[in-house]
Amino acid sequence: MLRRRLAPTLAIAPLLLAAACSGGGDTTPGLTADQDRQLNEAAEMLDANSVTLDEVTGNTTENAS
């Protein structure tokens, strides 16, 4: 009997958890819109200036035979 009463609740629980975890907005919590924009611009600059590990260490994927 208890199992029948809990079945609908257990079926709905994952949907409620997924809805609670979804992001509601584009801004980072605790930041103003201007701070969030500046943070995104800084991240874009870092991405543009990044290099791969192979470029730094000289590692290649080719066989040296």
Quaternary organisation = single chain
Mean pLDDT: 74
Q: Give the ordered list of helices and strands.
A: HHH
Main sheet overview: none
Helix coverage percent: 55-70%
Kindly describe this structure.
The chain is mainly α and 65 residues long. The protein is built from 3 helices and no strands. It has helices at residues 2-21, 33-48, 53-57. The N and C termini lie far apart (72 Å).
Topology:
Layout: H1 2-21, H2 33-48, H3 53-57
Comma- or semicolon-separated keywords:
0% strand, mainly alpha
Task: Write a compact overview of the structure shown.
The chain is an all-alpha fold. The chain contains 3 helices and no strands.
